Structure formats: C-alpha cells, structure tokens
Amino acid sequence: MPRLFESFGRRALFALDAEQAHALSITGLKTGLVSGSFPEDPALRQKIAGVCFPNPLGMAAGYDKNAEVPDNLLKLGFGFTEVGTLTPRPQSGNPKPRIFRLVEDEGVINRLGFNNEGHDAAYKRLAERGSTGIIGVNIGANKDAEDRIADYVAGIKRFHAVARYFTVNISSPNTPGLRNLQSRESLRELLQRVLEARDDECQKCTLKRPVFLKIAPDLSETELDDIAQEALDQKLDGLIISNTTLSRTGLKSKENTAETGGLSGAPVFERSTIVLAKMRQRVGKEMPLIGVGGVDNTTKTLTKIKAGADLVQLYTGMVYKGPGLPAEIIKGLSQVVEAEGVANISAFRDRETDEWAAKEIPA
C-alpha cells in the first residue's frame, strides 16, 4: 500500500492545500475504507510504564487533534495512538495557511498553534469508545491562559478516566512562551502540580495513568541535564523525544523553507535521535523513552530503539508514505526479530546509544 499511495494517492492529496488534505484523510478514516487486520506478534509486545503495548509503534499527537479517529488509526497497525494537543477551551489556532510541505526533504513545517475543539468535545468522543486499544491524551495550555500550569492540571483531571497515558506538551514552538516551561524552575513546578493532580485522581479510582513529558529537539546539553534531573527527581513516568524543530539546517527544498513554525519529518531524524540517545544516557536504563522524529520505515524505527527508545511514534512519515506505512513497519520489525533470533524487540534497545550520544546536535 505505501508504494501504491506514493504513486497515486499522494499525487491527489498533494494537489490540495496541506490542511485540506489533512481534513480529507480524517474523513477517509471515518468511512472505514482504510483499515486492516493484523495478527499480533508476541515478540513485539512490551510493558512500558505499567501499560502493555501490543507493538512499539504509535501515532504521534498532532494528527488526530480532536480524538475523532483513534480506533481507526489503531486498525492501521499502530500499537497505540495519541490524541491532541487538547486545551481546556476551544481555540482556532494561528491564521491560515499554517501547514507547508517541503516535498524534496519529505518534511512539513506547521504553525498551527494548538487548534482544537477543547476538552469537552474530545472527552465526549473518548468516553463513547467501545474499544480497549491504547489511547494517550496530549494536553496543552490555551494561548491566553493566565496560569498555564493550571491548564495542564485541568487536562489530567478531565481525561483521567479515558486516557491510558498522558503527554504534557511544553515543547511546541507555535504558542509564544510555551517552551519556557522547559526551564528548570518552571519545569519543577509544572511536574509537581501535574503529578500531584494525577495522584489525586488515582486515589479516587485506583487507576494510575503514566505521565510523559514531550520535549523539544532544540535544547543545549545543559538544558538536557536540567530536564533529566527534574524528570528523575519528580519520578516522572517517561519522556517523549522530540517535538518539531526550529532549525532549517541542511534543507534541499526551494519552497516554504522560510516559513515560521516547527519542522517535522525526515530532516528531524538525526537531530531527534541524537537528543534521544543523550537523554537515555542521562536518565539511565529504567525510565521509559519514546522516540519521535523522521520515522518513515522499519530501519529508522529500529534505529530509534537502538538509540534508546522503548516505543516509537511517527506522523509526517504517513503524509509521504500513506496509511499502509504502520503495517509495513510492524511487519518489518517482526522479520528483524526473527532473523536476529532474539526473543523480543526490546533486545535491540540501547545497542547504539553511545554512538548516537557522542554526536553533536546539529546547529
């Protein structure tokens, strides 16, 4: 299916504005025309942060912002999917156009600005689900919030009953000042309040929901040190590495490279994998890490795992390779496990952490 999509489907979607194409793909998933049936491979199962994942590949936040098609995405072969980013109140985001393809680089620049329908609309959809598949909820803050940390706390409280895990997104470059929450003092307060809210909710229903923190790939070594130490000190459940980048280093595309916003896709692969490995060295072997950025085939998925990831997410790769991509990657991972004669995909973790961590983060 990926090759068929690249030949025909992509041409049709790329004739549309990027945001129109995204909306059309959501509609297509709702129809159920794009789906599949995939036997689970026990060798790909993992228990991470107390959650049993059928395979290590997930759909990253940003695609299904309003929790419209989580179960449809799982039917493509993903082991889990993440909805959002969701803010307490609906917001329209930044002015259009705000998504730009960099075709030669197989990348995308977006400056959406947390456009979403708000907590209530997404909660209603998630509460009505009949499936038990793993859905994470990515939470954020409204642009005009007086207390942004309070917005994250509100997300924990609102979705605790329906989320299998939470992602605290403080690394989007498209909400002014949001990345300042990655500074050590602000991060300490954020994690303390969010984890306290999570623990309070746990006492009410005995269901403990892991909380992951999603960080930027544009951090210095010192900033990585601070985040790692706070994550360990606050007993955070895990980290997602990474969000989009502000860097434009090494791009080949002649169009759209000057657009403001976060860059995702193939150009982010090296940067995000280096940051992933550096963070694995800092937090040790026990803390779960999810690797994101530039994943569009089995080899890159496996590279993330070898660099230190327990789980891997993708999004932009689907823009260029189509809805058959997750099934192709999962099939490839199963073949690699069998060929290498290992019991589980986790046997590959950290094989190349030191090599990746020794690299300089690109400018």
UniProtKB/TrEMBL annotation:
<feature type="binding site">
    <location>
        <position position="65"/>
    </location>
    <ligand>
        <name>substrate</name>
    </ligand>
</feature>
<feature type="binding site">
    <location>
        <begin position="61"/>
        <end position="65"/>
    </location>
    <ligand>
        <name>FMN</name>
    </ligand>
</feature>
<dbReference type="InterPro" id="IPR013785">
    <property type="entry name" value="Aldolase_TIM"/>
</dbReference>
<feature type="active site" description="Nucleophile">
    <location>
        <position position="172"/>
    </location>
</feature>
<feature type="binding site">
    <location>
        <position position="242"/>
    </location>
    <ligand>
        <name>FMN</name>
    </ligand>
</feature>
<comment type="similarity">
    <text>Belongs to the dihydroorotate dehydrogenase family. Type 2 subfamily.</text>
</comment>
<keyword id="KW-0560">Oxidoreductase</keyword>
<dbReference type="InterPro" id="IPR050074">
    <property type="entry name" value="DHO_dehydrogenase"/>
</dbReference>
<dbReference type="InterPro" id="IPR005719">
    <property type="entry name" value="Dihydroorotate_DH_2"/>
</dbReference>
<feature type="binding site">
    <location>
        <position position="214"/>
    </location>
    <ligand>
        <name>FMN</name>
    </ligand>
</feature>
<feature type="binding site">
    <location>
        <position position="294"/>
    </location>
    <ligand>
        <name>FMN</name>
    </ligand>
</feature>
<protein>
    <recommendedName>
        <fullName>Dihydroorotate dehydrogenase (quinone)</fullName>
        <ecNumber>1.3.5.2</ecNumber>
    </recommendedName>
</protein>
<feature type="binding site">
    <location>
        <position position="265"/>
    </location>
    <ligand>
        <name>FMN</name>
    </ligand>
</feature>
<feature type="binding site">
    <location>
        <begin position="243"/>
        <end position="244"/>
    </location>
    <ligand>
        <name>substrate</name>
    </ligand>
</feature>
<feature type="binding site">
    <location>
        <begin position="110"/>
        <end position="114"/>
    </location>
    <ligand>
        <name>substrate</name>
    </ligand>
</feature>
<feature type="binding site">
    <location>
        <begin position="315"/>
        <end position="316"/>
    </location>
    <ligand>
        <name>FMN</name>
    </ligand>
</feature>
<dbReference type="InterPro" id="IPR001295">
    <property type="entry name" value="Dihydroorotate_DH_CS"/>
</dbReference>
<keyword id="KW-1003">Cell membrane</keyword>
<dbReference type="Pfam" id="PF01180">
    <property type="entry name" value="DHO_dh"/>
</dbReference>
<keyword id="KW-0665">Pyrimidine biosynthesis</keyword>
<feature type="binding site">
    <location>
        <position position="85"/>
    </location>
    <ligand>
        <name>FMN</name>
    </ligand>
</feature>
<comment type="function">
    <text>Catalyzes the conversion of dihydroorotate to orotate with quinone as electron acceptor.</text>
</comment>
<comment type="subunit">
    <text>Monomer.</text>
</comment>
<feature type="binding site">
    <location>
        <position position="138"/>
    </location>
    <ligand>
        <name>FMN</name>
    </ligand>
</feature>
<feature type="domain" description="Dihydroorotate dehydrogenase catalytic">
    <location>
        <begin position="44"/>
        <end position="336"/>
    </location>
</feature>
<keyword id="KW-0472">Membrane</keyword>
<feature type="binding site">
    <location>
        <position position="169"/>
    </location>
    <ligand>
        <name>substrate</name>
    </ligand>
</feature>
<feature type="binding site">
    <location>
        <position position="174"/>
    </location>
    <ligand>
        <name>substrate</name>
    </ligand>
</feature>
<comment type="pathway">
    <text>Pyrimidine metabolism; UMP biosynthesis via de novo pathway; orotate from (S)-dihydroorotate (quinone route): step 1/1.</text>
</comment>
<keyword id="KW-0288">FMN</keyword>
<dbReference type="InterPro" id="IPR005720">
    <property type="entry name" value="Dihydroorotate_DH_cat"/>
</dbReference>
<keyword id="KW-0285">Flavoprotein</keyword>
<feature type="binding site">
    <location>
        <position position="169"/>
    </location>
    <ligand>
        <name>FMN</name>
    </ligand>
</feature>
